[in-house]
Every structure is written in C-alpha cells, then in structure tokens.
Amino acid sequence: MSALTIRYEGHRATITLTQPEVRNAFSDEVIAEITAAFIEVGARPDVRAVVLAAEGPAFCAGANLNWMRRMADYTREENVADAGKLAEMLRVIYECPKPTIARVQGDVYAGGMGLVACCDMAVAAETASFCLSEVKIGLIPATISPYVIRAMGARAAHRYFLTAERFGAAEALRIGFVHEVVAADQLDAKVHELLKALTSASPNAVRACKRLVLDVAEREINASLIAATVDGITDIRASDEGREGVQSFLQKRKPNWL
After folding, report:
1. CA distance 177 to 151
2. Which of 128, 211, 237, 257 is most buried (most C-beta within 10 Å)?
3. CA 57 to chain centre
4. CA geometry: angle at 96 spanning 94 and 99, to 5°?
5. Do the strands 58-60 and 107-109 form a parallel or antiparallel pair, or are they unpaired?
C-alpha cells in the first residue's frame, strides 16, 4: 500500500502523506516513496510549485516503530546505508527545482522536523506542536540537522536539540521555523495565497532564486561569492524570461508567462 498520493492541479503538485494510522512516520519504504515523488514533481515542466501535506492529527512523527525495531539489529554498514537514504530524501526535497510549501496541519516530531525544514516555506495550524525528541531515546538529530539548524537558527537549535521539549506553533513562528501560523480552517487559504504568488512570478526566476538561496546562505562573503552573484544576475538578465519581465514592466503589461 502506498504511503502517499500525488495530485496535479493547474501548475501545482500536492504530495500528501496518507498513513495517519502510524502518524505518517517514516520507514525505509516511505523514504524511497517520498524521494521518488519529489524527483517526479521536480522534473515536470508544468509544475511551478509543490505542496507537502499530510492526513490525520500528525504531519509526521519521525521514524516508524517497526523500522526502529529493525534498526536495533543493524550492523554499522547497514546503519550507514539506512541513514544515507534518509539524507538523500532530505537533499532531494531541499534541492527540488520547484518551490515547496509544507502544509503543517498537525504534530511534527524528530525526522518529521527535517521534512518541514527542507521545504522553502512552512505554514502551520495553530494547534500543531513540534519536537526534536531524539535525545530522549539516546539519539541525536544528526541527519536532519543541516536543514533544521538553517531553518530555526543555531541559538534555537542549542535549546531544542538538547532539551527535547515540545513547543507550539507560536514558538515555531517566533524562532523562524515556520513562516505563518493560522487557524486550522484557514490553512488552505494561506497555502493558496503563497501558491498564487509563486505561480504568478517568472518560473525561471523563481527556480534561479531558489538556487541563489541554496548557493549563498551561510557562505562567507568573499570574492568568489560576489563573482558568482554577478554572474547570476548577468545570466538572468540575458534570459528570455528576464528580458520579457523587464519589458512587460516597462510597458505596463502582463508578462507572457501569465
């Protein structure tokens, strides 16, 4: 049985985790499915934005118990291979060429925090709660850490990695882990608002902007970074969509991608 569905509608793709009975927790099979889903939607030319959603009271509760039981008997080599698959899933989501929105309707625990952190934007219901619970069971959030620390900042990570405290949506908003918190019945309206902004912008510029953030964030500002940003603006100005965008702005008309 599949752990997710993919729905295409206009220029958007929605990937929905559909295992509420196990709180949409990961197993190695689920990780493979999520990876394949993001590769598929990322490659489609008609898709301009991707929503990651989930069914039930939890968005994602991290590792599935059956998978954890299997892990307990893994050799070091098996653990390396297993963690490598999780790391690859997170990389594929983070580097998806299309902009991504996490629609967080419920609780997010452990590895699930990585899913949210890897999306470009996150909108949460005010009832959602969050937890980096790994230290409670003698583990660390190692594989998800590059993405979670980028999303919430090192200062918040120092606290929540170490204490495994649960925190609410208002705190997730305060530390920058999510961008918007709304009433549960307003979740779709807020996601739609972001989708409208994403799909009315130049698809090529959106793709290049996402790459820009990935390339520039956290890097030392030095000559090679500055040279790369000069090349970036030069290339986009010379592109068809760059020329069309500027011309349509100057001519006070809608650009041809609308």
Report:
1. 5
2. 128
3. 19
4. 90
5. parallel
Q: Give me the half-sphere count of Cα atoms (radius 13 Å) on the Cβ side of residue 139.
A: 17
On the question of pLDDT at 54 being above 80, the answer is yes
Token duo for residue 146: 């590059």
Retrieve residue 187's tokens.
């979740």
Residues linked to residue 124 through DSSP beta bridges, in sequence order: 104, 181
d(CA 120, CA 151): 9
Tell me the C-alpha to C-alpha distance, in Å, between residue 174 and each of 11, 156, 170, 198, 238: 31, 10, 6, 24, 39
Residue whose token pair is 């993405």: 147
**pTM for the full model?**
0.90
Q: What is the pLDDT of residues 221-243, one digit of tens each?
A: 788 878 887 787 778 777 888 88
